[in-house]
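In pairs, describe these two lines:
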Amino acid sequence: MGKVLVGAAISLDGLASDPQGNLDALYPDLDALRETEVLQESIRTTGAAILGRRAYDMAEDPDLYADHYEYQVPLFILTHRPPARKPREAGGLTFTYVTDGIESAVRQARAAAGERDVTVVGGISTFRQCVNAGLADELHLDIVPVLLGAGPRLWDGVDPAALRLERIAVVEMANGRTHLRYRIVR
């Protein structure tokens, strides 16, 4: 069985977005990032992905996920209310809206992923829920060389005493971005 990987990008001051929830400052290099070995490896090893509803809603047109999203795998959207219309699905990309919590989302994503990894790709709340429930096996963190000054802090609401980390890798990337990988020690 694959691992559950939680990922996030944060500013040097530990913020996961600006005060309005905008992520542009953390992804000024999105096109270049898509071509990096770090993201390409993640795409190759991911069998299913979990997104929070806000992360899912960031797509201007959810139908574009079918042809343009990095992860063309089953997507599990953690939400209180599924959208009125399900977006277009194509190839291996399908949508499942999970309304009964992170444990259910991880269980369903693991079943869909088989031997491959489950990647939790979006939403600070989804990240925190997965970590706090003890469901994550690895933490993948990108540190972006920008100071946002204000906004949500990634680690607020996470019990630091319950999270022991063992470094797996440090990868220097383009534009000063640093990718860190940690195993979550149980």
